[in-house]
Amino acid sequence: MNKEKELISLQIQVPEWKRILEKSATAIEDLPKICETELNQISDVIKTYPMRINPYYLSLIKEKNDAVYRQCIPSAQELKDNLQPDPLAEEKNSPVSGLVHRYPDRVLLTVSNKCAMYCRFCTRKRKVGTEKMIMTKKQILAGIDYIEDHPEVRDVILSGGDPLMLEDNEIEWVLKKLREIKHVEIIRIGTRIPCSLPQRITPELCSMLKKYHPVYINTHFNHPDEITEEAKNACSMLADAGIPLGNQSVLLKEINDDPAIMKKLVQKLLTIRVKPYYIYQADLVKGTNHFRTKVSKGIEIIKNLRGFTSGLAIPHYVIDSPDGGGKIPLLPEYLKKYRWGKLTLRNYKDEERVYIDP
Ligand SMILES: *Cc1c(COP(=O)(O)O)cnc(C)c1O
Ligand code: SF4
Predict the structure, then answer these.
(1) Following CA atoms 151, 243, 330, 103 in sequence, which dihedral angle do they give, to the nearest 10 degrees?
(2) Does the predicted TM-score (pTM) go above 0.90?
(3) pLDDT exceeding 70 applies to what percent of the chain?
């Protein structure tokens, strides 16, 4: 083989997603010109909180400080608040390292410390992308053993970091182990990859995942600009593999804290076969205070969806309550009065309707 041919065959062996990932911006020298004036501050921030922006996600930035920019480019604000690193008490609720058992019948198992892009608002900012979160095979096994010893666990959520940052065979190893446990009914994967690096969703990955059904995926889109042809392709492949797709968004200041943007997002999600599942109120996580919005904004967003667009498009708006209290749904007030078996209700057009209890 001549040199050129050799090179081409090597490139074919390395999958496209890995080649993209390798070109990620992880140091200030890798950042585009629009960050030019911020470089000193960014360099400070990434000493504490790692940066990784792969070229695909970076290409979605249209202008400085837009919704994509704010999610991935570090900001000096990250070093300026006094919030707690782990307000949801995940570490306290971890019987074995990397496994959170907060609800009666389901657990969250972190299997990877890496992501295809480090979101600046991450709830696990205290450890994501650092050595504090490395999950060895032995640690994952300890989590799987715990699940085996707890017959009440019927739902396992693989999380991280991003589980799809693992190799196909590593993911398969975890799925196989879980499927050997009789009481595990469903497996969920929480991943931002259909949004942040859709090229990672390959035919090989999909045909492996579908062997372990029922497998559900919850992905993470926050803004309509993230719904591209590539993302649509990735989601089609997953849906064609029989995987039901949900979406979890975080309500973020100056990114998606706007009823019109959220409406567009949830409608576009349905067109790529993704069902909006949750909108999270931003947690009280150290380094992310500048992303928080008022709860009234979230309620306004839900109020502007219900009745005004497909019920299928409407996610639950929740606060993951401090100190491991679990998720609590928040709704606009629809029940105005309940007296003597008579309910006075408010519909989406703000009209009153009365319903009589039996
Ligand atoms: C969010 C979460 C779950 C899953 O909650 P669902 O409402 O069932 O989607 C499970 N465990 C932990 C620790 C969680 O944070
Ligand atoms: S993809 Fe998820 S885990 Fe990773 S940085 Fe973003 S929010 Fe955090």
Answers:
(1) 10
(2) yes
(3) 97
